[in-house]
Amino acid sequence: MLLWAWDVLGSKSPAVAAHRLVAPALLEICVRYHLAVERRPALLRPALAAFLDGGGVTHPAREVSRRACYLFCRFVKPTRGQILCHGALPGVMAALEPALMDASVPESANSVGSSAANSVGSSFTGGGTGGATATAGNDDRLYVFEAFGLLLGIDDVPDDLRIRCLEAVFARLRGAVEAASNSHSPHSNRQNLQHAAQHAIVAMGNVAKGFTLRVATQTSPRVGEILASGLTPALRCVQLWPRDPLTRTRVVAYFQRLVTVIGPAVFPHASPLLEHMRSGGGAHASASASDLRECLVLINQLMASFKESLAPFLAAQLPSLVTQIAGALAPFAAPGGGVNGVCGLFLDGAIRVNPRLVPNDEGGSGGANPGWGAVVGAAGNTEEAREARDLEKIFVAHAHGVAANNLAGVLVADPRLRECFLETLAAAASAHPSAMSRKSALQALIRVAQCWLPTAEVVASGGSTRAGEGPVPGFAAFAVSRVAKEACVDAVMRGDLDPKDAGCAAAVAETVNFTRVMLERLGGEFANHLRVNLLGAAWGLDPESHGREYVRRVTSTTQNSAREARAFIAECAKIAQGKNPGVASNKCTPGM
């Protein structure tokens, strides 16, 4: 009823319908009651008219038009199928053209500020973005590109219409990026070109949101080519302004969007982008912990998307990246985490820590190479220490992703990388001050163990010469002595993990899961070693009563088996601490 009333109002009293307070109110109604439009197709025409006529995305008041672009995107998401099947798409594309042309050009901070100051009703419309956010690229008008992509990304859109509209819009956006990347203008004009390029890169990423991998690579491969055509000039912008973090953020976001839309077609651009991110933004700059964290986030997304096919890329990039990560963590790292909660990476036979953070009773060495701890002043910076902790956490998540995405073969082929990953994960699982970091490290080690310890079926069929020997000789012994003993038994028995705390209980649960994998893959030989040596000889628990019950609880698959196993392990820990008074524990925090 309200939409019909609007239709009549717009035809009889257009000035009232286009009022800066009335127009946004109706658009909000269209979005809120989109289900009514879907159920009654007759309402589609007045609803689209409200958005696309002079009272919507082309409204003369900038605050209203910006708000209309955002609301139109929200309206299109649930109703785009109706728009297509009722034949309204060509008309919508034609009506959107002025709004798309306007939104492709960024508003200068001065014009945005004056517009906001001159509009009395901007606070009521909710559409004023302000000069600061518009300058940063968060202009609400950019939502019109997302709506444009959503409409063209429908499977049944005629291919000629889709390609024609997409090429026209991308030509304009790509032109803005190319103009900036090829420019040798003075500094003042270069800032405007830089802002225009950032704006256009965000717009191209918004358009790509509407397309699926199937549409862009199978239904219409030309669409994928168009969507990727802005990536080369965008990468030139990153190289042209290496120290501008906003440009890099926009380009990385655009690249990550294309990973999900065009798939392997992004491979040629992955290495140059990662090399730039690793360089820290310049030939004479070093990448910070935050920069390296972004690199790992990007690689993790690529691993999740492409799995085994990413192996050559990973083999080429990981060795030098791991070296950089070890160097970035070293100024904040100490054995057991120290004051910063950073353990550091094991590389080339040593844990890379800061010698000045090593307690005197450890001789100031801690297995560290003094050269890695040269940047000592940064260790007292709280913000940089937080970034180092975040980098260490994402590295553990990366190690989990390597195994989870069938890329552990990269570590099999590179002994240096393999040693780095395994020793770092084992140290974190057994001695990290954060319970959540121990949990993450154990999850990664579980994945690695599932990859490298053969199942009983493989051994029986002759796929492995003997139980426990997988693609990495000696891994079974490492898993028993370093992970099962130090992380799963010793750390719990000495009281590092408080079973009453939720975060610590989650880490204990992962020790149970790792032990279960070891029992499944190594069988009775490991079960006896666990009972007699790890629990009995080391902690004084009875191998028959406590040891057999320990094995039974860990391998149980009943509904409450996990909770019962944690409870029994807590009882064993109390007994072990009673029989070993004065044992030093490294108490964990729930998270850090």
From TrEMBL:
<dbReference type="InterPro" id="IPR011989">
    <property type="entry name" value="ARM-like"/>
</dbReference>
<keyword id="KW-0820">tRNA-binding</keyword>
<protein>
    <recommendedName>
        <fullName>Exportin-T</fullName>
    </recommendedName>
</protein>
<keyword id="KW-0813">Transport</keyword>
<dbReference type="GO" id="GO:0016363">
    <property type="term" value="C:nuclear matrix"/>
</dbReference>
<keyword id="KW-0694">RNA-binding</keyword>
<dbReference type="InterPro" id="IPR040017">
    <property type="entry name" value="XPOT"/>
</dbReference>
<feature type="domain" description="Exportin-T C-terminal">
    <location>
        <begin position="382"/>
        <end position="571"/>
    </location>
</feature>
<comment type="similarity">
    <text>Belongs to the exportin family.</text>
</comment>
<comment type="function">
    <text>tRNA nucleus export receptor which facilitates tRNA translocation across the nuclear pore complex.</text>
</comment>
<dbReference type="GO" id="GO:0031267">
    <property type="term" value="F:small GTPase binding"/>
</dbReference>
<dbReference type="GO" id="GO:0005737">
    <property type="term" value="C:cytoplasm"/>
</dbReference>
<dbReference type="InterPro" id="IPR016024">
    <property type="entry name" value="ARM-type_fold"/>
</dbReference>
<dbReference type="Pfam" id="PF19282">
    <property type="entry name" value="Exportin-T"/>
</dbReference>
<dbReference type="GO" id="GO:0005643">
    <property type="term" value="C:nuclear pore"/>
</dbReference>
<keyword id="KW-0963">Cytoplasm</keyword>
<dbReference type="GO" id="GO:0071528">
    <property type="term" value="P:tRNA re-export from nucleus"/>
</dbReference>
<dbReference type="GO" id="GO:0000049">
    <property type="term" value="F:tRNA binding"/>
</dbReference>
<keyword id="KW-0539">Nucleus</keyword>
<feature type="domain" description="Exportin-T C-terminal">
    <location>
        <begin position="21"/>
        <end position="329"/>
    </location>
</feature>
<dbReference type="InterPro" id="IPR045546">
    <property type="entry name" value="Exportin-T_C"/>
</dbReference>
